[in-house]
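Comment on both lines for my students:
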Amino acid sequence: MYTSEGKKIVHTDKAPKAIGPYSQAIRTESFIFTAGQIGLDPATMEIVQGGIEVETRQALTNLKHVLESGDSGLNFVVKTLVFLQDMNDFAKMNAVYAEFFPENPPARSTVAAAGLPKGARVEIECIALLNPSRGD
């Protein structure tokens, strides 16, 4: 159900719960806008161990679950914003990112951030179209 402002809160237990006063995503009639996802394991709410590649993979998996719960998906992403704690991790993050967006990748910005929640090395947010064949 949409609010009077024309938005719908998106939530899934397959991604980490919000660790502050924000929603996992907001859906409008045409788009879904996600909050940033870090490499948190939704079951433990702890950062996955293993370095930037593992964190990037978990962040993108979390993002995928949020998008799917809002009637979208990675193939409908039009823009991403990637925050890196260390730009020296760019190539490794980029290699994993390419696995999730193998064709027609979205527009993207990548910026260095002095600090990310829970000591994360990467955070990724996106804007996506809704799946046109959704059943609502």
Summary: Residues 32 and 128 are 5 Å apart (CA to CA). The mean pLDDT is 94. Strands lie at 8-10, 25-27, 31-34, 37-38, 77-84, 107-112, 122-129.
